[in-house]
Amino acid sequence: MSKPLYDALYHRLEKVRWNMSDVPFDQIDRSAVSDETIRSVQVNCLMELSSLYATRMFLRDFRSNPDFCQFQSIWYFEEMRHYLILREYLKHFDAEPNFESLDEYDTDLKEAPWPNTLAMHWCGELRLGRWYTHWSKEADEPILKLVYKLIADDEFRHAQAYEEFMQQALERDPSVLLAFANSTKWMLLNPDGDKHPTTFSEGSYDGKAVTDRIENYEMLRERIQTMVPAEAEISLEKRVLKTLSRLSGLELQTRSDLVRLTLDLQAQARAAEVKPAV
Ligand SMILES: [Fe+2]
Ligand SMILES: [Fe+2]
If pLDDT is split at 50, 70 and 90, which confidence band does 227 have? Predict the structure, then answer.
């Protein structure tokens, strides 16, 4: 049985955790912030709130993995701080989301097989980390630049943690590789600049993605498509293929290699289901 990850992740993440009090909100340069920027930060803030709905889903669907559920205490804390740090920023512009109407965004996520969910969120963290890194570089206002950088680094660390849970799962049951390959393939193909667990409409009981409920999400989506450089997707794909190569022990250099892997694994799974005649 592999070692639990929560213990090591707790200590590792504790060492690098930032404090809200380290962010000098009183030094915000209001002259460097446009209305469009504020609208983007509002959308970022409400997207971060979706970790609340995701945590309910994680604790339900990962019930068989207490180690992962324990790690959720850290993930949820850090994600909710992303919501809070953006909210704190917006307060300086009298533009924070209305606390009274947050239930309008609540989403009930459908039950789904945990290996697919894990790989989807791993990819989502890697992609979101790239978006926030880009927004940090592009921000004209220094405190927003800092806020975006703090969030980006957290998202990359979350991806690393999910990757370790994927490795642990494969050590316990190599057959989950098919689900990992399928989910990452889905995340990488036709990303249209905005594939993330919050934009996955089939995942909700009412067929509405988290982002469908957020006013001005379309504007942020356009910003992602027009502003986030193509290199971000290229580097994401490279990173995903490199990790899946390491985890599978196979050389995956292109998306076609990933598609081929899923087909091979599906064929193997079907062959294993066929009972030999006695
Ligand atoms: Fe986040
Ligand atoms: Fe994250």
Answer: confident
- Please calculate the CA angle 167-168-169 and round it to the nearest 5 degrees: 90
> Is 95 strand, coil or helix?
coil
Instruction: Write the CATH number for 42.
Output: 1.20.1260.10
Looking at all shown ligands, the one closest to residue 156's CA atom is: 2
Q: Which ligand is nearest to the CA of 50?
A: 1
Q: Which domain holds residue 198?
A: 32-173+194-230
Distance CA 123, CA 180 (A): 10
**Using one digit for the tens of pLDDT, what is the confidence trace for 163-177?**
999 999 999 999 999
In a domain, 99, yes or no: yes
- pTM, 2 dp: 0.93
120, 187 in Cβ contact below 8 A? yes
Task: Report the 10 Å Cβ neighbour count for 73.
Answer: 13
Which DSSP string corresponds to 34-70?
-HHHHHHHHHHHHHHHTHHHHHHHHHHHTTT-HHHHH
**Spatial distance between the Cα atoms of 134 and 153, rounded to a whole number of angstroms:** 12
CA of 234 relative to ligand 2 center, distance in Å: 20
Mind listing the pLDDT tens digit for each residue in 81-129?
999 999 999 999 999 998 888 888 888 888 999 999 999 999 999 999 9
